[in-house]
Amino acid sequence: MEALLVIDVQNGIVEFADFQKELTVMKDVIEDFKRKGKPVIFIRHLDDEEESSLYKGSAGSELHASLKEYAECIVEKQTPSAFFETDLSSRLEKLDVDHVFIIGFNTEFCCQFTAIAAFDRGYKVTFIEDGTGTTNTAESYGMAGLDIKDFVGTVLHWSNVIEVLDYEEYIEVYK
């Protein structure tokens, strides 16, 4: 069984920049999974630090209105990995999931960490590169010209264990 993990699509991240393209891809993938009757699990990051845009109980920690209506199942986490100290593994096991697809925010942290953790737990993993976004930039890392999504996608692809697709490839292979 395939399941979709929608990671950290929360106000404190989405309202940081213009993520309309990424949100459109995410919505299309979510709707495809829903149409096929496959599980869609939203992951929500909650911080204990009041200064954080994802501070639990704050407006920033809430799921973004653009996708909130699809969130029937939500797993809360406090680290980049959606598996660490959460019940995600047991939920996936109950659903007999063996293949997870990953979309959401932030590409190089929560999406990447969750993809690697899923592989480590024996799941087939598909990372939809243009269905992820990040609040960071090349300047954040002091690396002029860095395309964070492409870099992470390339690293995961080169691992030869995580399938990395863009949305058009996803449609060709899975729709």
UniProtKB/TrEMBL annotation:
Stretches assigned to the Isochorismatase-like domain: 3-147
Classification via Pfam families: Isochorismatase
Entries under InterPro entries matching the protein: Isochorismatase-like_dom (IPR000868), Isochorismatase-like_hydrls (IPR050272), Isochorismatase-like_sf (IPR036380)
SUPFAM superfamilies reported in the protein's UniProt record: Isochorismatase-like hydrolases
Keywords: Hydrolase
The keyword Hydrolase appears for this protein: yes
Record flagged with keyword Ligase: no
Similarity remark: Belongs to the isochorismatase family.
Name of this protein: Isochorismatase family protein
